[in-house]
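Severity: low
Component: inverse-folding endpoint
Summary: output formatting inconsistent between runs
Steps to reproduce: submit the following structure tokens with default settings.
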């Protein structure tokens, strides 16, 4: 996938069938589905693929135990349906990119036997709904068993309940969707923002003005239908297409903090089922670190990145402290991130707290402008959301000769070579002086594309160098991301091609210059461009540290 090639194809295409706006999970999912059905598709992303919410989630693939509880308590069949959808989709997410998604055991500490019984019954029902053999069934653990699984849990617990959901690398999963769409014929462009629309004589959308934010140039795109997949930013595009629309999105901010692995010392996660203010908080192992989150607060100004703030850090540290033997402090926080949930506000529900709104999705067709908007949803159901949206595209375009939805059993880039011999690949890695553990970590990022990475490592011994002594990332990955994954900025690389930005800010700062050197060589940056890029990213990280009031551990 190369940005210049994408720009050239764009210039030589008169009119696309479908222009998808927004390259998060929703937009990438729609682009893939529509491409596989036989449409000529272009995907336009303002920032980077997965650059907003879709790389800043809790990374759980779930039916939603919380929704099940509410469904049962309130006899709410709508919520029950959502749980079932989530559980069905969980299976496709794992099956279609097994290197990027896996089952995760989640343990809920229990302080009274009655609580244990309550959660056990609830989780058995959750298991019955799923009936998926990839996920072991739930179990009620004794105190001794729970502490054997997670030795850092507070020994005040009476027992614990364990169940399984899925976990994914959200940024790389988004990228795999984009790559799969591109491989099958879609044009995909990051760092390009839709700024306005053009209408035909009937008032229907016929074109869009797009600004290439890297070249600072305007591009004109014609398409038969425009699909708004901009998540929490969806209202902006809806108003551009039709200023008379009512707002539908109530963005809600959620943050995570990241701690060293010793605070959990386990490959299993902990769920704190009820915080003082009635939320769920997860403590999750993710790539040798521990993620803790999340919060849920209304957020107005979507132009500003929802970065981690000091009081949010304190809230999460205080919330988890009673459940663990070690009490983490601000000094232990190595990084953090915030995202915006694209919650839908039903027109009649104005004024309700975002916590009580449904995380459902809706496909809205504006009959005046013809804009199709995919609103709301969650990562877990991205495929179903894309399927529903592409049905709306079918109904709108009525194009002859298109196919039915293909995405249920469609293996994504990185998972397409089912014959891929990981043990052989491991041997190559070991011969390049990589440990088996490092080979496995790389496989979990690149899947069957690992062979290309090995070739890059053989090109120049410098590419075998580690970015940072505490992490397994190698310089070859900078080359790979620049050549094949459309990483165009330092942040594209550090935050989404690898995940160092959400794992450890100091390590990013320490390795930034050598990454910029290699990226600059690959992308043809001048010395001034490189220095500007470094300065820009350094000041962003400083801003993060100041906002979260986290001490720089350099
Ligand atoms: C804190 C948090 C935790 C979460 N945890 C989970 C979880 O564990 N499991 C789960 O299933 N779900 C989870 N979710 C929900 C899930 O992350 C989101 O529902 C999903 O990522 C939304 O994807 P999206 O593509 O709709 O939006 P986004 O990922 O935000 O993508 C929208 C894209 O549109 C682009 N865009 C905006 N304007 C324009 C324009 N003018 N031109 C071109 N592009 C534009 C943006 O740059 C952005 O990349 C969580 C959400 C949050 C905030």
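Observed output (run 2 of 3):
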């Amino acid at each position: 996938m190369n940005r210049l090639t994408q720009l050239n194809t764009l210039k030589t295409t008169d009119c696309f069938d479908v222009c998808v706006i927004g390259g998060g999970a929703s937009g990438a999912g729609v682009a893939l589905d529509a491409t596989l059905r036989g449409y000529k598709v272009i995907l336009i992303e303002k920032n980077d693929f997965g650059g907003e919410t879709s790389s800043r989630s809790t990374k759980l693939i779930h039916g939603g135990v919380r929704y099940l509880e509410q469904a049962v308590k309130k006899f709410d069949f709508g919520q029950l349906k959502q749980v079932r959808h989530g559980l069905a989709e969980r299976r496709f997410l794992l099956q279609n990119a097994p290197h990027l998604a896996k089952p995760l055991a989640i343990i809920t500490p229990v302080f009274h036997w009655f609580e244990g019984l309550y959660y056990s019954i609830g989780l058995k029902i959750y298991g019955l709904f799923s009936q998926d053999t990839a996920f072991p069934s739930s179990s009620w653990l004794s105190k001794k068993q729970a502490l054997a699984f997670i030795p850092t849990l507070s020994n005040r617990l009476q027992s614990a309940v364990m169940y399984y959901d899925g976990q994914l690398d959200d940024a790389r999963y988004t990228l795999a969707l984009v790559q799969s769409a591109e491989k099958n014929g879609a044009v995909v462009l990051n760092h390009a923002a839709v700024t306005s629309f053009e209408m035909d004589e009937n008032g229907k959308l016929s074109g869009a003005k797009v600004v290439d934010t890297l070249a600072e140039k305007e591009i004109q795109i014609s398409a038969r239908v425009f699909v708004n997949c901009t998540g929490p930013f969806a209202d902006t595009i809806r108003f551009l297409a039709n200023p008379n629309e009512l707002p539908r999105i109530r963005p809600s901010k959620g943050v995570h903090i990241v701690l060293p692995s010793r605070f959990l010392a386990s490959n299993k996660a902990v769920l704190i089922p009820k915080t003082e203010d009635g939320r769920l908080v997860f403590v999750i192992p993710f790539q040798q670190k521990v993620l803790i989150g999340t919060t849920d607060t209304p957020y107005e100004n979507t132009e500003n990145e929802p970065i981690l703030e000091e009081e949010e850090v304190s809230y999460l540290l205080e919330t988890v402290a009673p459940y663990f033997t070690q009490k983490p402090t601000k000094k232990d926080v190595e990084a953090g991130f915030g995202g915006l949930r694209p919650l839908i506000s039903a027109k009649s529900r104005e004024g309700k707290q975002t916590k009580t709104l449904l995380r459902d999705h809706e496909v809205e067709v504006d009959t005046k402008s013809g804009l199709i908007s995919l609103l709301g949803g969650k990562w877990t159901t991205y495929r179903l959301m894309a399927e529903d949206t592409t049905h709306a595209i079918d109904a709108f375009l009525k194009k002859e000769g298109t196919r039915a939805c293909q995405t249920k059993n469609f293996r994504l880039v990185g998972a397409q070579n089912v014959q891929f011999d990981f043990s052989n690949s491991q041997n190559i890695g070991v011969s390049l002086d990589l440990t088996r553990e490092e080979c496995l970590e790389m496989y979990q990022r690149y899947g069957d594309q690992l062979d290309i990475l090995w070739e890059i490592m053989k090109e120049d011994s410098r590419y075998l160098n580690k970015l940072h002594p505490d992490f397994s990332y190698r310089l070859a990955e900078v080359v790979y991301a620049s050549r094949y994954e459309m990483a165009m900025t330092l942040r594209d690389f550090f935050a989404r091609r690898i995940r160092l930005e959400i794992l450890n800010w100091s390590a990013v700062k320490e390795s930034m210059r050598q990454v910029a050197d290699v990226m600059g060589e690959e992308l043809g940056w001048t010395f001034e461009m490189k220095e500007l890029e470094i300065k820009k990213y350094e000041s962003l990280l400083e801003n993060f540290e100041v906002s979260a009031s986290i001490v720089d551990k350099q």
